[in-house]
Amino acid sequence: MPRIALYPGSFDPPTNGHLSIIQRGLKMFDGLLVAVLKNPAKDSLFSVEERVVLLKGAVGGDPRVTLKTFEGLLVKFAQQEKVNTVLRGLRAVSDFEYEFQMANMNRKLDKEIETLFLMTGEDYFYISSRFVRDVARLGGDVTGLVPGNVLAALQKKFKR
Ligand code: PNS
Description:
By secondary structure, the protein is an alpha/beta fold. It has helices at 16-28, 48-59, 74-81, 93-109, 129-137, 148-157, and strands spanning 4-9, 31-37, 65-70, 85-90, 114-119. It has one domain (4-125): HUPs (Rossmann fold). The protein is built from six helices and five strands. The longest helix is centred in the middle third of the chain and has 17 residues, at 93-109. The radius of gyration is 15 Å and the shape is globular.
């Protein structure tokens, strides 16, 4: 049985921090199911379809990476996909509380679900999609923080 982990997120937009987690996750698992949350309640910069296209471009067609979208509870999606390991990146102390609560809530909802955290590499610990969006919107240069296709999409979005 191939070992598959679920890597969920908003990915609005995908960053080099996300890509690093994907690449490192692939050293531990045979494949990753990268799942983009469809959250109609949250204003997003890129539509969920755009985010999938951006992730697809960024992972460069690696056959070990499957991309899907999901709505509602993550544990339900994990059950549906028959995956019980959730992979998450952990950047700093500030991420810890939220991630700790989420991992425990998910395990409470389904005791088979384990969350595995990868510490974000030193080059990426300060990168977040929110800051990338804000900096790009305000005309700052996000080169090196996001994959090339995401940089191009941000430039197009903000017409620079
Ligand atoms: O990239 P993000 O925004 O940090 O990802 C958060 C995500 C998508 C993993 C999380 O919000 C999620 O799993 N949402 C689905 C709803 C859910 O299952 N909530 C209960 C867990 S606390």
